[in-house]
Design a protein that fits this description.
single chain, alpha/beta, Rossmann fold, 5-stranded parallel β-sheet, 8 helices, 13% strand
Amino acid sequence: MRLFKKLFRTQTEPVVVVSGLPRSGTSMMMRMLDVGGLEVVTDGIREPNADNPKGYYEFERVKKLPDGDTAWLEDAGGKVVKVIAALLLHLPNTYEYRVLMMRRKMDEILASQRRMLVRRGEDPDAVDDQEMARLFEKHLAQVYDWMRQHDNVRFLDVDYNVMLSGPEPQLAEVQAFLPYALDLQAMAAVVDPSLYRQRH
């Protein structure tokens, strides 16, 4: 079955995917790869705001992956696209992926989400933090199982908290993981400690 699937993979370069839970640093990593020299797949529809002043780097069609909208992946080889963890499982097996999984302390993710919900005028207490953390951890376990079970998917964990304290070691790992030459100095300059607002 795996050999059969490989025969139908047509792109010559892997699709670089930045993923993770919401508020885990995916937008920062997208910006890093952008200035580092990779072409980003984005449409600019979601504009920067107080929650993400540097921009979201999103591509709206990614949200339609569960509906089978995957044709855009044909032109995504050698480029980078943001796909939140909840949508990774809908990526088709017909392409090769290098996934950068952004990891961040769970209490910081929850605090950042609460702040974002308040800005939007939504109820930040709709779901208890402890229950939300449990659901997130369960979801991540499913995502990692999915990635390990697919031979067309390789992944690297990138620690958001470590990145902010000193990006160079993490960026060296990213460079070793991706088959593209990156401008690591430009990428390191993206780190802006002033945006690290949910420290715990």
